[in-house]
């Protein structure tokens, strides 16, 4: 039909009058038959939709489905005819679970949603005004599980209780306190927004560094990364210079005892004999 109404200018449409319909009546087309034996179009006339047949005729939906199965290479396109017929049945008050009778038309939903063939067209959300009436239209799709509703109509996030969305998009209940990027935050019920203030850290205990080479430094607290703590840190450049010379027959040995910072020097005897300040094997 669109080919009869070309628009020269999208902003200012200039649609010519369609040509006159031919007066001669064409021959009625032959009843099409399904092109492929594996077509799912036959479901439209089977018992799956039988309850709807007296209210909505499946004939035109069947013809469209057969046309698609004959002319469209993607077999999943046939699902649209079944979907359209199921939607027409839903508006007539008949809800049909038809997708589980097919393999290619399965209703896949994300893990936090459930599939419903006749869910509310306006999904309940925290933004709803209880005094306003909602439409009774139904539609198929992915919906929040029982006992949950959308945080708002745009977020797509299901929540059990209404509240706020934190800066990372995680739903928070009213008056819930949480920490975000070293800030103490609360979901304020009066403003329905998240209010944050810098986290207050307790005064860190002072570190007692008595050994040589140790200095007091403040660094991130491993228990709470948002706060700092005083710790003793070994810095070798603060160690005293010690040039130890050993007597003949001894060799200097350098080691750092456990729990200490600076190296200590000792003299260990060599496996030699000493006579008149001369070493002999």
UniProtKB/TrEMBL annotation:
<dbReference type="Pfam" id="PF08742">
    <property type="entry name" value="C8"/>
</dbReference>
<dbReference type="InterPro" id="IPR050780">
    <property type="entry name" value="Mucin_vWF_Thrombospondin_sf"/>
</dbReference>
<dbReference type="InterPro" id="IPR001007">
    <property type="entry name" value="VWF_dom"/>
</dbReference>
<dbReference type="InterPro" id="IPR014853">
    <property type="entry name" value="VWF/SSPO/ZAN-like_Cys-rich_dom"/>
</dbReference>
<protein>
    <recommendedName>
        <fullName>VWFC domain-containing protein</fullName>
    </recommendedName>
</protein>
<feature type="domain" description="VWFC">
    <location>
        <begin position="164"/>
        <end position="233"/>
    </location>
</feature>
<dbReference type="InterPro" id="IPR036084">
    <property type="entry name" value="Ser_inhib-like_sf"/>
</dbReference>
<keyword id="KW-1015">Disulfide bond</keyword>
């Amino acid at each position: 039909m669109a080919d009869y109404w070309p628009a020269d200018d999208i902003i200012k449409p200039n649609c010519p009058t369609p040509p006159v319909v031919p007066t001669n009546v064409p021959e009625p087309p032959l009843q099409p038959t399904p092109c492929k034996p594996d077509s799912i179009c036959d479901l439209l006339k089977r018992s799956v939709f039988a309850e709807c047949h007296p209210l909505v005729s499946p004939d035109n939906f069947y013809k469209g489905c057969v046309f698609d199965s004959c002319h469209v290479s993607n077999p999943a396109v046939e699902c649209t005819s079944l979907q359209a017929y199921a939607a027409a049945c839903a508006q007539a008050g008949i809800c049909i679970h038809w997708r589980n009778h097919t393999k290619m038309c399965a209703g896949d939903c994300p893990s936090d949603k459930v599939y419903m063939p006749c869910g509310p067209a306006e999904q309940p959300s925290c933004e709803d005004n209880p005094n306003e009436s909602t439409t009774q239209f139904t539609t198929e799709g992915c919906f929040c599980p029982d006992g949950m509703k959308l945080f708002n109509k745009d977020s797509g996030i299901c929540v059990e209780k209404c509240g706020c969305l934190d800066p990372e998009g995680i739903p928070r209940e009213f008056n819930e306190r949480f920490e975000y990027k070293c800030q103490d935050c609360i979901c304020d019920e009066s403003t329905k927004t998240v209010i944050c203030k810098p986290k207050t850290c307790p005064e860190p205990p002072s570190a007692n560094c008595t050994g040589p080479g140790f200095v007091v430094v403040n660094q991130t607290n491993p228990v709470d990364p948002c706060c700092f703590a005083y710790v003793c840190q070994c810095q070798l450049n603060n160690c005293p210079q010690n040039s130890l010379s050993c007597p003949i027959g001894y060799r200097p040995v350098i080691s750092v005892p456990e729990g200490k910072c600076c190296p200590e020097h000792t003299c260990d005897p060599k496996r030699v004999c000493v006579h008149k300040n001369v070493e002999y094997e």
